[in-house]
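Risk register update: the risk of archive-format incompatibility is retired. Evidence:
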Amino acid sequence: MPKRADRIVGLAVVALGIVLALLVADIEINERQSTLSARFFPGLIAGALVLLGGLLTLKPGALATADAVSGLIRRRGVLIAALFLLYCLAFRYVDFRLGTWAFTILALWILGSRKPLELALIPIAVSATVYAVFRYGFTVLLPTWT
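Archived output:
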């Protein structure tokens, strides 16, 4: 039965990707913009949803649906989801570097990391790398306190 459940979920993910792609097509583009368009990242996500949902549909796994869902609703999963929601809601108001650092360190803690060196270095590395890629690689302005 798990294979059938995976196929149903895979088809649902494909449908979600297609709906997102249709919504992305309506995003207006600034013709004078010299960086990636506003459609790029949502389109990339839509494409990934269609591709990965299609793969799940064609090659389902052996994990039962009940086991997969129970893994998601465990305390850690709920805490990570709540933390991510808070991160998204605060994105506009908190300096990107500080918010990403806080999100990463709290996510590591929730997931069980207790090594001081890991907790000290990984959040800084993630925050600095993501900021540098978006700011200087894609030339996307991120919310910062100046």
